[in-house]
Amino acid sequence: MCMPSTGLARRSLLATVSLALLGVCGIARADTPEQGGITSFRTDVWVKEDTTLEVREEIVLNNAGEFYRWGFMRNLPIGSEDRWDPKYVGEYKRDNGIRVKILEVTADGGPVRYEQGQGWGYSQLRIGEKDVPLAGGEHRYVIGYTVNGVLTLDARRDTLYWNAMGHGRDAPIADAILSVHLPTGVPDSDVAVEPRVGGRGVSNPRRAETELERVDNEAGTVTYRATHVAPRQSLSVAVSWPAGYLHASKLSFLGGDQWLIAAPCLLFLYYLIAWLRIGPGPKPGTVVTQYEPPEGLSAAAVRYVVTTGTDGRSFAAVIAELATHGCLRVEPQDGKYKLSRMMSDRATEAKLAAEEKRILSMLFEDGPTIKLTPALDQRNTAQNSRYVAAIQQELSKRLDGRYFTKHVGIIALGVLATFVCALLLAARATGRDTSGALFFTVWALGAGLMIGLLFEMAFWPACKTALRSGGGWVKLLPGTAAVGAFVWVIVYMLQKLAEGVSLAFALMLAGLMLVNLVWGPRLKRRTIPGQQMLDHIAGFRLFLEKVEQDRLDKLNSAGEAPELLDDHLSYAIALEIREAWGDHLAQTFLATTVMR
Questions:
Q1: What does R_g of the chain's alpha carbons equal in angstroms?
Q2: Within 10 A of 386 (CB to CB), how many other CB atoms are there?
Q3: How far is CA 488 from the centre of its chain?
Q4: Which residue of 393, 561, 572, 583 could cross-link 577, Cys pair, CB 3.0 to 4.6 Å?
Q5: Beta-ladder partners of 104
Q6: Residue 584: is its pLDDT beyond 60?
Q7: pLDDT by residue (tens digit) across 137-167?
């Protein structure tokens, strides 16, 4: 028998081993997917009667680590890049107004940590560990969320355009299913559907290997299936049906946060209950002409009783009273006033009211003369406001609680509740960009309440004074510009909150501000002695109007040193009797900060 050569034997052995290896590799290829990615992507969209959508996505990935090297990222199809078709969504907008609320996120059957993006990355949903590639094998994700602002409502037909997977995706999809569950009662015969598989824009049509078919498995549902969907391509449908099956609430334009409007409503109810419990004040009595001012009340105190506050006119009345008693001399100079300290005896100064003594001391603490300029002169704003604040302190100590009650505690509690409620809601806010929600909320509320208070108690009375006297409008221009600038900033911040959080949140803050500003002044109540004093003041004012006004106008011309300094001059200023010199002096300080 002939034995095979050694070389032939080696070649035979190598061939046998090679065939065996090829067989093993073939078996391995048969058991392993040829390509990793998304094996299944199912989307169910329920159209609710209130015009919102409820969406549930079930995504199955297999060996998709090469596509998700930084963790699993789901770009929800709510941005303008995914909703690109102008036929259904109109012109392109970076922010199309669509908002979502995440209801459920699970991975492999259990809850999982997730993080939703902000700003232009609002649609991004990062699931699981950040910057960690997906492990090999199969993973199943379920994402549930509600959507507002998607439907197009028309007088004849309503339309839903939904791009199920979106285009921001590198992984291929082996099998995709999109089911739209129509509102109850919509007949299938009246439903029009336009499906599409492809990339963004009409220039990215469906690929040849991609298949699309309709799957009708139940009534009231439109279902399409696509296979071999390439990266950056998606399955979308436009579904329309006759109008009348959806019933949007009147507040639907506020989106899913419309319940926030309950906050200002509850605050309004709080103030209303407080107002009812306080009850009405005493009714005015019969006005009888009084020939003398109320005993024990200075001109500034009389104004305080009438207006429950102190302003530039109160300051002017104090200056007139000091001039009347010979404590100082007033010299008008080009719209300003030079005040000079005069030597007066102790007995005269002892008769002055507490606020008059304090102002006399403050005016000349730096020298025997001082020049007063309008309060809107930048250098003197703080100075004049300091005088008004001093008058306010003295009068409030002496008169508060005696002639009227302000119920400051109720107002303070309402303002505190406003800030606590707003800050809690801002901290828990969800929206397109909530990064500045806390800052904008604090700034808008604080500035809004302050500017509103100043407008109500200082600027508006100043406007009325200017209107009554027929002058002083020029002095209001800087104040008008300042108020306008602050209002613009507040509106800007509310607009940012509307864009970043929701329109309902911004309107809630505006509502809280308005409720506080409207109700606060209306909680003041006069006591019975306060109403009796007010009746006496009304009678004295009647006397000044009918008897003294012409005489004061003739003797005390506007812009000139007063010739007649009697007890009635300061009261005429305080009670806003049209008296030329007093009006001119008051106009100089008409925009000084008012204290209430």
A1: 39
A2: 13
A3: 13
A4: 572
A5: 144
A6: no
A7: 999 999 999 998 899 988 899 999 999 999 9
Residue 501 contacts residue 441 (beta carbons within 8 Å):
no
Own/partner contacts of 48-52, CB < 8 Å, gap of 24 or more, are 48/183, 49/183, 49/184, 49/245, 49/246, 49/247, 50/246, 50/247, 50/248, 50/249, 50/252, 51/148, 51/151, 51/153, 51/246, 51/248, 51/252, 52/146, 52/147, 52/148, 52/256
Q: Write the DSSP assignment of 27-77 as a string of letters.
A: HHHHHS-SS-EEEEEEEEEEE-TTS-EEEEEEEEEES-TTT-BTBEEEE-T
Phi-psi region at 461: left, alpha or beta (left = phi > 0; alpha = psi -120 to 50) = alpha
Range of 7-21, 275-289, 409-423, 485-499 with top mean pLDDT = 409-423
How far apart (Å, rounded) are the C-alpha atoms in residues 17 and 9?
13
pLDDT confidence tier of residue 129, bands split at 50, 70 and 90 = confident
Give CA–CA dist 303/290, Å, rounded: 16
| Greatest mean pLDDT range, 34-38, 58-62, 362-366 | 58-62
pLDDT for residue 588: 56
Q: Which CATH architecture has domain 37-248?
A: Sandwich (2.60)
First to last CA, the chain: 128
∠ Cα 258 263 265 (to 5°)? 95
C-alpha to C-alpha distance for 280 and 522, rounded to whole angstroms: 11
pLDDT band at 474 (very low <50, low <70, confident <90, very high): low
Structural element, H or E, at residue 386: helix 381-399
When pLDDT is averaged across residues 482-510 and rounded to a whole number, the result is: 89
What is the distance between the alpha carbons of residues 426 and 416, in angstroms, rounded to a whole number?
Answer: 15
What confidence tier does 589 reach under pLDDT thresholds 50, 70, 90? Answer: low
Q: Strand 37-47 to strand 53-62: parallel, antiparallel, or no bridges (unpaired)?
A: antiparallel
- Cβ neighbour number for residue 362 with a 10 Å cutoff: 14
Mean pLDDT, rounded, of the chain: 83
Distance CA 67, CA 34 (A): 15
pTM for the structure as a whole: 0.71
Q: Among residues of the chain, what percentage have pLDDT more than 90?
A: 45
Q: Where are the alpha helices (DSSP H) in 346-380?
A: 346-350, 354-363
Q: Residue 6 has what pLDDT? A: 42
Question: What is the C-alpha separation between 571 and 589, in angstroms, rounded?
Answer: 17
The answer to whether 300 and 574 are in contact (CB under 8 A) is yes
Dump the DSSP string for 63-129: S-TTT-BTBEEEE-TTSTTTS--HHHH-S--S----EEEEEEEEETTEE--EEE--GGGTTEEEESS
Smallest CA-to-CA distance from 321 within 347, 295, 353, 344 is with: 353
3-state secondary structure of 548: helix
- pLDDT at residue 138, as a whole number: 93
**Contact between residue 546 and residue 563 where contact means Cβ atoms under 8 Å apart:** no
Region for residue 51 given its phi and psi (left: phi exceeds 0; alpha: psi -120 to 50; beta: otherwise)? left
